[in-house]
Design a protein that fits this description.
The chain has 445 residues and is an alpha/beta fold. It has two domains: 5-341, Alpha-Beta Barrel (TIM Barrel); 345-437, Immunoglobulin-like. It has helices at 36-44, 57-66, 109-119, 158-178, 197-209, 226-236, 291-303, 322-338, 421-425, and strands at 71-77, 123-129, 184-188, 241-244, 271-275, 307-311, 345-353, 356-361, 367-372, 383-386, 397-399, 408-411, 414-418, 432-437. The chain has a five-stranded antiparallel sheet with strand order 7-8-9-14-11, with helices on one face. Strands 1-2-3-4 form a four-stranded parallel sheet. Helix 7 links the parallel strand 5 and strand 6 (307-311). The longest helix has 21 residues, at 158-178. The chain is elongated.
Amino acid sequence: MTWGPYSQWSIVESWSLCPEDYGWCQRTAGSNSNNYYEYKKEYEKLKTTFNPTQFDPDKWAKAAKNAGMKYVVAMSKHHDGFCMYDTKTTDYRITDKECPFHSNPKSNILKEILQSFSNEGFMSGIYFSKPDWKSEYYWDPYFPPLDRNVNYDPEQYPEKWNKFVEFTHNQIMELMTDYGNIDILWLDGGWVAEQRKEIKEWYQKIISSNGSGFIKGKMVNQDIKMDELVKKVREKQPGLIVVDRAVKGKNQNYLTPENTIPNESLPYPWESCIISGGGWSWVKDAKYKSSLELVHMLIDIVCKGGNLLLNIAPDANGNWDEDAYVRLEDIGVWMDINSEAIYKTRAIAPFKEANICFTKKRNTNTIYAIYMIEDINNMLPQEILIKSFVAKAGSEIKLLGYDKNISWKEADNGIIITVPKEVQDNPPSKYASTFKIDSICNENK
């Protein structure tokens, strides 16, 4: 849930403060968009009008649970440095007296979100931006910012940089101490890292491949002492999953392809983080992905061994768009029938053929063939050919949500499933139907 005072302007989160010349981070709001320094002042004053009085995280958590979601990643702060929690390190926070929401009983937004989702059985994750464009120790007021990076050379001003490292560690230790059991620390801003040559080359490759463009300016060493930090946080939160995004090494416990789905299964844990509609932050009249697209996306990710982290952006009042609730409800209806083909499954090559995706349970010969329905009338064909697997003689094939066995026969190096007429016209679930094949004789052809 990408959320902060910027939602009042219906703009991209934080990035309009960044003096990099991309279309997606142009200044499009406020009364000083043609003057960077005046714009920054006006942007930061959004704190004094941010008052999301309709904030109701219990409603969000129930909707997410009904959709079948299992974990939440809640935002503590984005790159602009505004804290959505009661930090003691800065006044640029939701609970400061200059923010009208500070007197609300739910003013510690991060804590409220995590508690509501925890009450529904969710794993708890915290999003935290390592760069902080509000901190004088990151963007020193003496120097103009040139790009997203620190605006001075940490090796030339080590005392100043060490103060930023201490500031960052203090903020994260607050989060690891005062917000209950935390399962995931999701760290954004991969350019804040020790810039060894091999890391720099790897990071630039990652950045260019996801469409964000190369980082402008000199890539200075921004060593935030991550090994030391991770050791400290795991003393507070044993077993914590740390996601130091786009920083190659032991502290990136899983990878996070952004707004994309890999073409193949990846040889390490991963999740696709994807926008549900509009942008990462709330925008007016956002066009949401259809329920069909979202269900197909979930299937495509899971069949390759990944997880889906779906972004839903609250507005300035603390509401989700109605379309977000509709999409979650539709996903939940589908999951009610097909969840056994999603939860606790493993990728199995070739992962998919045409519009059929495959998953399997660990240590079994049972596979799930998930037929993604592309017919606008939501109909299944009379026969479905699967070339990737051969079922053992006597195997049963069931259609999840349908209480009768499904007929099948061998084909050349595969099987043909016969779909009953009553199911063709009225599948048990919209968007995709799952055929459970209880025993295959070839895992990989």
